[in-house]
From TrEMBL:
This is DUF3040 domain-containing protein. Keywords: Membrane, Transmembrane, Transmembrane helix. It holds the Pfam family DUF3040. The chain crosses the membrane at residues 52-77. InterPro entries: DUF3040 (IPR021401). It comes from Nonomuraea spiralis.
Length: 79
């Protein structure tokens, strides 16, 4: 989704103010923008790792819940 003309103008004003007030930060932002425009998809790689991490934790929770249920059933059946 593209920016409107007004939004692009506001963004340009912010960028100009940043370059004027903090040239070092502006240089770093420009470097980040260059990396992103070169087609390196770091956010997607991060989101893929996050998804795997979340799914792993969900399976661990299910496994622990299963063990707890089995232990509770054993405790009830042996008393």
């Amino acid at each position: 989704m593209g920016l409107s003309g007004r939004e692009r103008r506001i963004l340009a004003e912010i960028e100009q103010g940043l370059e004027r007030d903090d040239p070092e930060l502006a240089r770093r932002v420009a470097a980040i923008n260059k990396i992103e425009s070169d087609g390196i998809d770091y956010p997607r790689a991060y989101s893929d790792r996050l998804r795997v991490w979340a799914l792993t934790h969900v399976w661990i929770i299910f496994a622990v819940a299963g063990v707890v249920i089995v232990l509770l059933l054993l405790a009830v059946l042996t008393t």
